[in-house]
């Protein structure tokens, strides 16, 4: 796998097998960390929200969750095999690798019914679940959630609570004595996809990097501005990156 810098954010790119191998090595070595998936519209969020950009700048493995990030890495010659590494695609392999090395699975996020059903799907893969917690709690409960995560046995902690909040929680948990032994993945709306309450785009759309358009068509009122603004900004990032690349600099 290779690193590239996209709009000031260091991103790890490569193929799905390479990425899964990298995660497996971390699990086998009992090396914790925070894994954050990056896609085009999150760059727009990071430019507008300095607190979120600061979260991305903290020690994390930021990887190409979105097809646009992988496409830019290929376009600029960083890695011609770079591909999207979406948790919606690879979560079963992540769970399997964690279980293989003696990790349990913790799920945090979504409503209680969804996260409990997602936990049951994880158990069906043969993994042991260490924690099931919804993503809706009053601020005063956050400390108790953090302490519960801290006290878990070695776990793959999947946090799906929306950008910035999920990354902030992962880093807060990892800062606790004992919390650094876990491997954290921020996963957005993954649990909805696991329980199939939210449809994935047809394979044709996925293969051509158009899942964002499919999602916008399915949920226009919620997503249209995110993708219009985010993708417009990503075009600016792409133009800058190409200029730098043609000038001899890496992305």
Explained architecture:
The chain is α/β, with parallel strands linked by helices. The protein is 52% helix and 16% strand. The chain is built from 12 helices and 8 strands. A 6-stranded parallel β-sheet has the order 4-3-8-7-5-6, sandwiched between helices. Strand 1 and strand 2 (9-13) form a beta hairpin. The longest helix has 27 residues, at 220-246. The chain is globular. The mean pLDDT is 87.
Rounded to the nearest angstrom, the distance between the terminal CA atoms is: 15 Å
Question: Main sheet?
Answer: 6 strands, parallel
Q: Which regions are unreliable across 5 or more consecutive residues at pLDDT < 50? A: none
Residues in helix, %: 40-55%
Task: Produce the secondary structure layout.
Layout: E1 2-6, E2 9-13, H1 16-28, E3 33-38, H2 40-48, H3 50-57, E4 61-64, H4 67-75, H5 87-100, E5 104-109, H6 112-124, E6 129-133, H7 142-150, E7 155-160, H8 165-175, E8 183-186, H9 190-194, H10 203-207, H11 211-218, H12 220-246
Parallel strand pairs: 3-4, 3-8, 5-6, 5-7, 7-8
Antiparallel strand pairs: 1-2
Name some characteristics of this structure.
about 250 residues, alpha/beta, six-stranded parallel sheet, two-stranded antiparallel ribbon, 12 helices, 8 strands, globular
Structure described in brief:
The protein has 251 residues and is an alpha/beta fold.
